[in-house]
What we know:
Blueprint: E1 2-6, H1 14-23, E2 28-34, E3 53-57, E4 60-63, H2 67-78, E5 85-92, H3 99-102, H4 104-114, E6 119-125, H5 133-146, E7 155-162, E8 172-174, E9 180-182, E10 187-190, E11 196-199, E12 204-207, H6 214-219, E13 223-229, H7 235-241
Parallel strand pairs: 1-2, 1-5, 2-4, 5-6, 6-7, 8-13
Antiparallel strand pairs: 3-4, 7-13, 9-12, 10-11
Amino acid sequence: MKILVSNDDGISSGGILALERALQKLGDVYTVAPDRPQSSMSHALTLHRPLRVEEISPRHYAVDGTPTDCVKLALTGLLTVKPDLVVSGINHGPNLGDDIIYSGTVSAAIEGALLGIPSIAVSLVSFKDFIFDAAAEFTVALVSQILQITLPPSTLFNVNVPAIPKQEIKGWKLTRQGKRHYSEKIVERVDPRGRKYYWIGGDDLGFAHDNGTDCMAVHEGFVSVTPLQADLTNYRFLQECRSMVIPWP
Length: 249
């Protein structure tokens, strides 16, 4: 098996190193990842400048671009082999609920799915004291099964692992995307030259306690596995919209 690994925390992050070590027992691991942290880049592509790639060691490439750049480059010409699987992570922090929209980790996996490769995004639900062992072990177990099923086109798995000792994790659950709450406060400051600048990033205010969601599963001590699709069409509402009459032109 040939596995492409990427992330949004950078090629030297602890999460990607733990993921590489764990996946090496399953096959050949190729790493193409940003040369620096690229969190919350969503599905950004670099179109306004050329990308630089450095081979820092055999099968390890650092890219001065986004997570999506990395996977697109890897799958459309950088690598001389076609990977069987794309795994993005292990992210330093959760990708639950609304986080998915902004996540560079998830977007790297989405790019793999868009290009026809089975893909997984993996995150550790913690912001400090990162211990990736359980997340890496679960990823290996999931990878061992994922190639035995047929994923629908442009579909991927988003995995979130609670940051608790492995023996305390209750198992895993298939989930749907939940809803996280953040404060919308923007911090306004003034620089030494008198010009205003702003910090975006509100405090975490919790989540909607809805059964069956990724947020609830992790809260209850389970690994959350959510099938995601790149197609954002609201098909239920699409049917309702067919009755609309718009008098134009």
